Amino acid sequence: MSGDVGSQAPAFALLDTDGNEYNSSNLAGKKTVIAFFPAAFSGVCAEELCSFRDALADFTSVDAEVLGISIDGRFANGAFRDANNLPFPILSDFKQTAIADYDVVWPDFAGMVGYTTARRSVFVIGTDGKIAWKWLSDVPSDLPTIADVQSAVEAAN
Questions:
Q1: Are 15 and 49 in contact (CB under 8 A)?
Q2: According to the 3-state scheme, what is the secondary structure of 12-50?
Q3: How many CB atoms are located within 10 Å of the residue 146 CB?
Q4: Interatomic CA distance for residues 110 and 21, integer angstroms
Q5: pLDDT digits (tens, 9 = 90+) for 49-86
Q6: 45, 64, 67, 153: which is the annotated catalytic residue?
Q7: How far apart are CA 58 and CA 53, in angstroms?
Q8: Which CATH architecture has domain 13-139?
Q9: Is the pTM of this model over 0.85?
Q10: Active site residue 45
Q11: Angle at the Cα of 117 from the Cα atoms of 30 and 43, rounded to 5 degrees
């Protein structure tokens, strides 16, 4: 699969909350944490992304970028970012291309037949552009352990 550890991280070009294209090529040579989340304004997603916010200094101290990606529109993502004081980009995958490329599609989310969203997941991308580590939720209420993500970032090339 394209989202497997050791594989080249899939490229993406997604809209940020201001409507600007955010291209993954801007991350070349940087360690990156990508947190895919199912839905802006859900309690679990807020808890997860606020955990990344609260640990951001630990990630930036090892020159790692943090990004959040959901299928929500840029306006909802912007309001979500502002409501939670998230200091990193929240990107809109409204066409669902990135979730497909990373193999984190969650169909019929929360029992809503036909509603496809992102599976809660975290990918650490090394400076070589390859996936160094990943974590996938088994149920929407699962949360990644920030310490595990930090360890993976530190271990990535």
A1: no
A2: CEEECCCCCEEEHHHHCCCEEEEEECCCCCCHHHHHHHH
A3: 17
A4: 30
A5: 999 999 999 999 998 999 999 999 999 999 999 999 99
A6: 45
A7: 10
A8: 3-Layer(aba) Sandwich (3.40)
A9: yes
A10: yes
A11: 85
